[in-house]
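Something for you to look into today, if you have time. I want to see for myself how the chain folds. Leave the record below and I will have a look.
***
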Amino acid sequence: MFDIVTPLYNKEEFIEATIRSVLAQSFAEWRLFIVDDGSADRGPELVRRFQDPRISLIEQTNRGVGPARNTGIHAGSAEWIAFLDADDVWNADHLEELDALRRSFQDALLIGCAFRRFSGAITPVTHSATGQRRFSRYFADCARGAELLVTSSAAVRRSTLAEVGDFKPLPGNEDVELWARLALHGPVAVTSRQTVNYRVDTGGITDAGVTGHRPASKPTRREDLSSTIPTLEGALPGITDPVLREDIIAYMDSRIGVRLVRAVLEGDIAYARQLRGLYRGKPTGKAALGAALARLPSPLARAAVAIGQLIRRR
């Protein structure tokens, strides 16, 4: 059995397709809890048209996506909770694949399938292409740039949530922060099988996280760069496993690296230099090149970036 939690806020254009993708699941042991978070459109009305007894609509005043998901979590009782945003669509074998993951990796407490981005209309497939199931070194994989899962492709153990806590009311990326807490607590299992269709360019919070949200501010403290860094900084002193410590440091440095590369590409060399000073380890990949450019005088660094961009366009 899976409880499915869907927060709904002004997504009347998409919610019917989302629900239909749940009804089409080959794995039929599920309950869907749709939490309307104060929508001003016809979304809740459209949900009520579905008469399947496994679908429940919960309505509350607007509190944000994290609290809406928490409401759905607490409405259910199944040990495994899957998440599905109100504008995303599952292939018909998504829950079947999640069930296979949890059975194959019984120690896992966070599991997830691969996803593909789309926009516009879509017809979900009945049988997704095959993929590889494996345990993930979550922080190391993410530090290397792997996109393991999005909220609509993830499922978590209820008993573990009771230990690590619910989604926090953060301004963004509250899902990624929860995944970090779960990965600190125990194993993560993933599959490269793409069973989730993740809609982009609809203005959702997760959309911003995956496609690269650009905040207006320029934080200069490590803990302000990502919602996960304060969580990981707080946990690091108590972690004795040297491999896990190394993976966590690499993960935190990779969050800095994203900002550093962006700053260099935007010509903000002074800010790139500030970010370089926040590293615990050494920059790698594109961030290493960005850090090297940031050591140059600002006019020379900007000229090097401009030349590189011109070459790439040709």
In short: The chain has two domains: 2-211, 222-313. Strands lie at 2-8, 30-37, 55-60, 80-83, 89-90, 110-118, 133-136, 154-157, 188-199. Confidence is low (pLDDT under 50) at residues 204-215. The chain is about 45% helix and 20% strand.
